[in-house]
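Retro notes, item 3 of 5
We never archived the inputs for the 2-phosphoglycolic acid complex last cycle. Fixing that now. Sequence and ligand:
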Amino acid sequence: MLVVLKKDYDEVSREAARMVAGAVRGKPEIVLGLATGSTPLGLYQELIALHRAGTLDFSRATSFNLDEYLGLDHSHPQSFHHFMETNFFQHVNISRRHVHIPDGTIQGDYDSYCAGYEQSIKSAGGIDLQILGIGRNGHIGFNEPTSSLASRTRLKALSRETSEDNRHFFSDPSAMPKCAITMGIGTILDSRRVLLMASGRSKAAAVAKAIEGPITSSVSASALQMHPDVTFILDEEAAYSLTQRDYYRHVLEMTQLFTPERLS
Ligand code: PGA
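Structure as it came back at the time:
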């Protein structure tokens, strides 16, 4: 695992954007795994700025979002469809035909819908680069603690912590959905490369458990220790509880020296 330590949120966003932009330029037909939440907002703004400057083209890219609330229509202001549209898609030239977000309005045969989402990822060639945030409880996507480390896209009940963290976005907090459709941890581990971003002291405990703790379904992000190409981009506050920060800086220096392509 590469752990990239940055000063603050803006630096995290810029570094993530540099890596994502490099990956898109290196493979214009890239399949991106995208995340919602407050963490990737700065990344999307940086990518939009690069696109507007004429240096980043998404016309051949494909995307798959991690998750969507169950029961929210695409136009609902708190839906992740709406989030992606207003914060990213409408500002860049990605083709809507190549955009995939789990449908929160499905009813009934959830398993077959979710198997279809998995199949679409496979048919697109698999995810080249998966962007992740991390929840205070260590979740990635909506894979709440005790999610199977082999899980695939499925219907998932949200934890109390997640409900507490996200409820305030809803004008009527009781309207916060209780479930979501989310890619599984197994789905995420299948992607070729993973970029996890975290900012702020509220994430420090989850980040430390994910990177330095044991692999456990109690901390979904700890499963990333089994992935061969994962990069954590953290600000000082999110990195606060890591015990090996000096070593991560040394690893980064050596990576820049010997295998800089891992950072491009
Ligand atoms: P946040 O959410 O970016 O809004 O902090 C992260 C997550 O829950 O995965």
